[in-house]
Amino acid sequence: MCDLADEYGALVMVDDSHAVGFMGETGAGTPEHAGVSDRVDIYTGTFGKALGGASGGYVAARQQIVDILRQQGRPYLFSNSLALAIVAATITALDLVSGAADLREKLFENAAHFRRRMDEEGFELLEGEHAIIAVMFHDAALASKIADEMLNHGVYVTAFSFPVVPRGEARIRVQLSAAHSPEDIEACVDAFVAARTAVEAAI
């Protein structure tokens, strides 16, 4: 993408809401992970997700771009400022993330563990290394039934179907954490297996 932008004189924008905080050597996100941090013109993201779940988001870019967005961006013009407590908490979260290499390593170990075990149990996963992992069921009703059944086994997950994802690509999204233990991951895999068995038996 960056090569194409250079060739055609375009700007590169990355919405990194699902990667800031844990992707990249310092948690700076996808461009750092891909080694192109200095080639991205506009970064957008959220102060939620890996940064703690608070409200608000950000645009990081050259001053000229930020000035244009401040004058022309309707969502910005009609929004309220963040509460000072959220600003302070977000700054602290950013400081913590920059020094959390051990937690990032643990997170990716947990994701790899979950992927390996789910593959062994015959589940279809979207490929990748991200800690938010899609378990594919394709059928919306099936994904919903599996998610409901998993709650009976003590695991809360959410099923996604059209229009959130394309038709025929219904899935359950699992979000791993550095706080999960190997036992937690095994319990989640066991819940998937039990839920699949129960739903298949009921069909």
Automatic annotation (TrEMBL):
<protein>
    <recommendedName>
        <fullName>8-amino-7-oxononanoate synthase</fullName>
        <ecNumber>2.3.1.47</ecNumber>
    </recommendedName>
</protein>
<dbReference type="InterPro" id="IPR001917">
    <property type="entry name" value="Aminotrans_II_pyridoxalP_BS"/>
</dbReference>
<dbReference type="Pfam" id="PF00155">
    <property type="entry name" value="Aminotran_1_2"/>
</dbReference>
<keyword id="KW-0012">Acyltransferase</keyword>
<dbReference type="InterPro" id="IPR015424">
    <property type="entry name" value="PyrdxlP-dep_Trfase"/>
</dbReference>
<comment type="similarity">
    <text>Belongs to the class-II pyridoxal-phosphate-dependent aminotransferase family.</text>
</comment>
<dbReference type="InterPro" id="IPR004839">
    <property type="entry name" value="Aminotransferase_I/II_large"/>
</dbReference>
<dbReference type="InterPro" id="IPR015421">
    <property type="entry name" value="PyrdxlP-dep_Trfase_major"/>
</dbReference>
<dbReference type="InterPro" id="IPR050087">
    <property type="entry name" value="AON_synthase_class-II"/>
</dbReference>
<dbReference type="InterPro" id="IPR015422">
    <property type="entry name" value="PyrdxlP-dep_Trfase_small"/>
</dbReference>
<feature type="domain" description="Aminotransferase class I/classII large">
    <location>
        <begin position="2"/>
        <end position="191"/>
    </location>
</feature>
<keyword id="KW-0808">Transferase</keyword>
<keyword id="KW-0663">Pyridoxal phosphate</keyword>
